[in-house]
UniProtKB/TrEMBL annotation:
Residues 58-77 have a biased composition (Polar residues). The keyword Nucleotidyltransferase does not apply. Gene3D superfamilies: Nucleic acid-binding proteins (2.40.50.140). It comes from Aspergillus uvarum CBS 121591. InterPro entries: NA-bd_OB-fold, Stn1_N. Residues 51-77 are annotated as: Disordered. Residues 2-49 form the CST complex subunit Stn1 N-terminal domain. It holds the Pfam family Stn1. This is CST complex subunit Stn1 N-terminal domain-containing protein. The keyword Repeat does not apply. It comes from the Eukaryota. One of its GO terms (cellular component) is chromosome, telomeric region. It is found in: Chromosome, Telomere. Its main location: nucleus.
Length: 231
């Protein structure tokens, strides 16, 4: 479902900032490679308006100005959740960008960011340092603190879970009842068909017996006539 965890905190949306080092165009997506100075690069997938898709291969790790210039004539890019347009024309290799989106995995092991919002970091390195300062404060104040639910919230969630379980059990019972009724209906239909077949088979046997008797009688009559003509 695109939800990951940091300790016991569910993570759905993330924000990153860094230098765009590559931009690669695919038929249905554009893949940006972001270096956020963490020691690893992140592939940022931007969907095109002609349909959602994931990248069909890894992004190039070297800047390509020709690809960036060609992107001006590319189809419109959109957010994967809201389908709102995204302007990523300024996001070319060498640009310092602030990106927000949801996490996904490519081939089960490569982490990607599905782009939802984007902007350029105005102010260069100072803007990036301010972002890093906000990120560190958020990590200390929110992510490093245990996520604990209040007793009222726990009670509400347990009630919802019990209700969902009861609803599931009721649905299973309904499915079983429907299955039993279907089997009973099929058995009734089978008995009706078998009964009609037996009636028709009996009628055919009686008709066949009448035809056989008529044939025997005809042969007997013909035999007598042949004997009389011989005399």
């Amino acid at each position: 479902e695109g939800i990951f965890f940091h300790k016991n905190h569910p993570i759905h949306f993330i924000a990153v900032a860094g230098l765009i080092t590559a931009r690669t165009e695919y038929p249905r997506v554009t893949v940006l490679t972001l270096d956020d100075s963490s020691g690893a690069v992140l592939d940022v997938v931007v969907q095109k308006a002609d349909g959602p898709a994931e990248a069909s291969g890894p992004a190039s790790t070297s800047p390509d100005p020709t690809t960036a210039r060609a992107s001006a004539s590319a189809p419109q890019h959109i957010s994967p959740t809201t389908a709102l347009p995204l302007d990523i024309h300024p996001l070319i290799p060498g640009a310092l960008a602030h990106l927000k989106g949801t996490l996904s995995t490519y081939r089960h092991n490569r982490m990607q960011l599905q782009l939802e919002r984007c902007s350029l970091l105005r102010g260069g390195v100072n803007a990036e340092m301010r972002f890093l300062d906000r990120r560190n404060r958020f990590r200390v104040e929110v992510l490093d603190a245990p996520w604990v639910l209040a007793p009222e919230e726990l009670a509400r969630l347990r009630c919802e879970a019990d209700t969902e379980e009861e609803r599931g059990e009721a649905e299973v019972a309904r499915c079983r009842r429907r299955g039993r009724r279907r089997v009973e209906r099929e058995e009734r239909d089978c008995r009706k068909i078998w009964g009609r077949w037996e009636v028709e088979e009996g009628r055919r046997e009686r008709e066949a017996a009448v035809v056989r008797e008529a044939g025997v009688e005809l042969m007997r009559v013909l035999g007598r006539r042949g004997g009389e003509e011989g005399d």
